[in-house]
Amino acid sequence: MSEAKEEKIVFQRPKALCDVVTHYCPGCLHGVVHRVIAEVIDDLGIQEITVGIAPVGCSVLAYNYIATDFAEAAHGRAPAMATGMKRVHPELVVFTYQGDGDLAAIGTNELIHAATRGENITTIFINNAIYGMTGGQMAPTTLPGQVTTSTPRGRDTKLAGFPVRVCELVSTLEGSAYIVRRSAYNPSEIRKLKAAIKTAFQVQMAGLGYSLVEVVSNCPTNWGMTPLESLKWLQENMLAYYPLGDYKVKDSVKELMAKK
Amino acid sequence: MPRIVIDVERCKGCGLCTQVCPKGDLVQMSDEFNSKGYRPSKFVDPEKKCIGCAFCANMCPDVAITVYR
Amino acid sequence: MAKVLMKGNEAIAEAAIRAGCEAYFGYPITPQSEVLEYMSARMPELGRAFVQAESELGAVNMVYGAACTGARVMTTTSSPGFSLMQEGLSYIACSEVPAVAVNVMRGGPGLGNIQPSQADYFQMTKGGGHGDYSPIVLAPSTVQEAVDLVILAFDLADKYRQPVYIIADGMLGQMMEPVELPELKPPQRPERPWALTGAKGRPRNIITSLQLDPPTLEKVNLRLQETYKRIRENEQRYEEYMTDDADLLVVAYGTAARIVKTAIVKARRDGLTAGLFRPITVNPYPYDALRRAAEKAKRLLVVELSAGQMLEDVRLAVMDKRPIHFFGKMGGVVPMPEDVVDAMKKAMAEA
Ligand SMILES: Cc1ncc(C[n+]2csc(CCOP(=O)(O)OP(=O)(O)O)c2C)c(N)n1
Ligand code: SF4
Ligand code: SF4
Ligand code: SF4
Ligand SMILES: [Mg+2]
């Protein structure tokens, strides 16, 4: 009896994550990233001052899961919407959650300009190399040779060009302050992802500029794999083209991190 | 004693939690089905080897695992 | 308050400021750019938000974002830019957030030219973007009226939680006239329990235009239609000018109506008794008022800087009760009052 009394919960659903079943496919890392964002919101105690913006894509219903004020944007326009919010309410923590099609195809313009203006907003970018929601068509991040429903013989770079490396691109922009690529294929990567999202929010709260955390993610359903196979494929194929790491950490951000 | 509790009704049977346990195969796929038709994972720890590291829980996209220590 | 001489575009900008506009987002395009330029100086000096966006897509979605927080917000553009904004405006309408958008129309289609035009009437009054929405559209014909209607636009946007448009054109944007402006006050927000301002001491708010369940989306649509019905019942505005004894009722709005007014005075000198019916809300369109006015006249003439777009609404109002003639100029060509007098005489001559 005494033993049961001493027992403590060391892992449970964060407060900022709604207690509902998600619509995501089994093994889809969208769920892990949602939870990690919610954990960061809890850790920083910012649930009451955070506004999220959901994209068009599989995570369009993110507002049903992350328990803060939330808006749903038009396809690709979340960074512009976030700009509008943040400019009238600088005291809010505003983040966008976007897939690769949303952010690196239809919404490239909004992304690039929010970043180059140095908007104090944060983007969580889910790179699963595919259009999940619409049934697995080629994304701007689809790998050369990768088979999708619109590249049935594999992405031919002569016809469809090359995948976009978002972190590399955005990090060249002066307004970007903290641009990093992480993943979530094992517990240690998830721990690093959480630290990065936390830093990104802190960068925003300190007014240091635009922050983006890319997550090299999966789509077992449209990749045509089991969840476990998808994590293996991610590590063996995606990481070579999308190396994990820090692409831009402004000195001001380094100073901030040293203080925390 | 550290242990985990799997909410079998929340579990979608993806198996991501079964590959990360530092103590081997404490988390395994079950042979039964839940009411949604998924085959959930189960906690098998007769020798009380679990250290409550929460690796399994961290991998779960559906937050179906609670860890006690 | 004393009158000041102002250019139409600048008056529109200052009127928004006086109406408590907290944020402005826009993109340069002639003949509207003076609004953006004016705001770029005024808004920051008042501590309000201004962003020159990367495109009209960017601008309208910044408007959407700011509107979601409950701020009074405006964008201005000209025809090609207004086309780009349609996506965002449809989202704004469905999400039921207030916003003001001004279109200083220019010649089209395509890149067209930078001269005055009224060829975006269909796009502005009939929705423009996808889905069943119906924005309020206000049509000023003087700089003073532009000021008054911009202020009204913010009030109506707040009242109905819908986008409100100002349909202007290059002529109005560029002309200088004396105007009287209300006092400058700090922006005040009415109670907006739906706004996204952080869920402090209240349940969280979600603003979305996505409703995957058809009956739920139908409910949203029914609510929108209910709003549009209230708007139709309460917000129709129009002006009648010399209509009491008019044999010929000319129907025109905005810049065209200014030209028509001059033409009416000239025509009356020549013995042609004409009057003007000028819709101020081109959506909701004052169908009943126009029908009543038409019944007093023998014939109608619709004058537009387009191929005949409002003409369809006039036909809807009058049906086949009176002959309806049309005179229009396209491509940025602006008719002289004499051209309109000729058209009026021709209309009366065609038995
Ligand atoms: C303007 C517009 N064009 C196209 C679509 C259709 N559409 C919905 S989601 C999507 C792609 C989403 O892919 P991604 O951003 O990678 O998100 P994922 O589903 O992979 O998470 C597309 C093309 C849309 N909703 N709106
Ligand atoms: S389709 Fe792909 S990205 Fe979308 S929920 Fe399923 S696995 Fe995840
Ligand atoms: S908490 Fe750690 S040790 Fe226990 S079952 Fe999970 S992964 Fe294994
Ligand atoms: S990771 Fe979660 S959902 Fe997947 S099998 Fe394990 S408990 Fe079930
Ligand atoms: Mg994708």
Walk me through the structure:
The complex is a heterotrimer of chains A (260), B (69) and C (351). Chain A contains eleven helices and eight strands. Chain A is α/β, with parallel strands linked by helices. Chain A has one domain (30-259): Thiamin diphosphate (ThDP)-binding fold, Pyr/PP domains (Rossmann fold), CATH 3.40.50.970. A seven-stranded mixed sheet of chain A has the order 3-2-4-5-7-6-8, sandwiched between helices. In chain A, helix 2 packs across helix 8 (187-205) and helix 4 (100-106) packs across helix 5 (108-116). The mean pLDDT of chain A is 97. Chain B is globular and about 30 Å long. With 69 residues, chain B is mostly beta strands. The longest helix of chain B has 5 residues, at 55-59. Chain C folds into two domains: 4-234, Rossmann fold, CATH 3.40.50.970; 239-349, Rossmann fold (3-Layer(aba) Sandwich), CATH 3.40.50. The longest helix of chain C is centred in the middle third of the chain and has 21 residues, at 214-234. The A-C interface holds A 47-51, 53-54, 60-61, 63, 67-74, 77, 80-89, 91-92, 109-110, 112-113, 117 and C 22-23, 25, 49, 51, 53-55, 57-59, 61-69, 71, 73, 87-88, 91, 95, 196-201, 204-210. One iron/sulfur cluster binds next to helix 1 of chain B.
Structural class of chain B: mainly beta
Report the span from N to C terminus of chain B.
6 Å
Principal-axis shape of chain C: globular
Based on the structure given, which CATH architecture of the largest domain in chain C is correct?
3-Layer(aba) Sandwich
SSE arrangement of chain B, N to C: EEEHE
CATH fold descriptor of the largest domain in chain C: Rossmann fold
Query: In which order are the strands of the major sheet of chain C placed?
Result: 3-2-4-5-7-6-13
User: Count of DSSP E strands of chain B?
Assistant: 4
Name given to the CATH homologous superfamily of the largest domain in chain C: Thiamin diphosphate (ThDP)-binding fold, Pyr/PP domains
Kindly report the CATH topology of chain B. Alpha-Beta Plaits
State the helicity of chain B in percent bands.
Answer: under 10%
Largest interface: A-C, 36 and 39 residues
Strand ordering within the main sheet of chain B: 1-4
Assembly annotation = heterotrimer
Task: Tell how many strands the DSSP assignment of chain C holds.
Answer: 15
